[in-house]
Specification:
Blueprint (H helix, E strand, L loop, with lengths): L17 H12 L4 H17 L18 E7 L6 E7 L7 E2 L6 E7 L2 E12 L2 E12 L4 E4 L5 E5 L7 E7 L5 E9 L2 E8 L7
Antiparallel strand pairs: 1-2, 2-9, 3-10, 4-7, 4-9, 5-6, 5-8, 6-11, 10-11
The structure holds fe (ii) ion.
Fe (ii) ion binds next to strand 8.
Amino acid sequence: MNAQHESPDCPDVDFPGRDKLVAAIDAAVIAGDEHAVTAALRNTLCRLIKDRDVQLPACVHEPIQDHYARRELYRSPDLGYSVVAMTWGPGQGTPLHDHSGLWCVEGVWDGELEIVQFELLDRDGERFHFRAAGGIHAGPGSAGSLIPPHEYHTIRNASPDHVAVSLHIYKAPMECCSKFAPQRGEWFVRESAELATDEAA
Ligand SMILES: [Fe+2]
């Protein structure tokens, strides 16, 4: 077990460079409004990914067979943000989803991810009209951010044989979100989804 001071309220997993990572994120999160915070966090994450002092726990390199893994490594008791490592086996990905109105900064730690942003064009009750608004292939050391209402996207590890690892910093723990199931053409149906976390140890 390499978890320390872990409680159900504030996960806090120990790993080399954990203090450095938390101090750097703390400094970015107090940068100001959400635009300033996410810009600071993108720079911070890019730096941390290349920092050899920071070694995420071994578990984050282990995919889980039937779903991409979400392991919460840290939750700030003072600032409220949540740090989640995600592990993407070959071909694993998300449906189109939102982030419950929370800003988020996501960095690729290892491997490569395909991220497609969607623009919301129209809405009819629980039916949503989205259009893919460009995608990127993000490699190690790259980071991007989402600020609501521009929060609709998919993430996928398109590699047939390599695992990808990403680190996500959310304004607050994201325990539920909306997922959008394709219906016809560019129309999707919203479904509420609860987000579970996998054990980080
Ligand atoms: Fe997401």
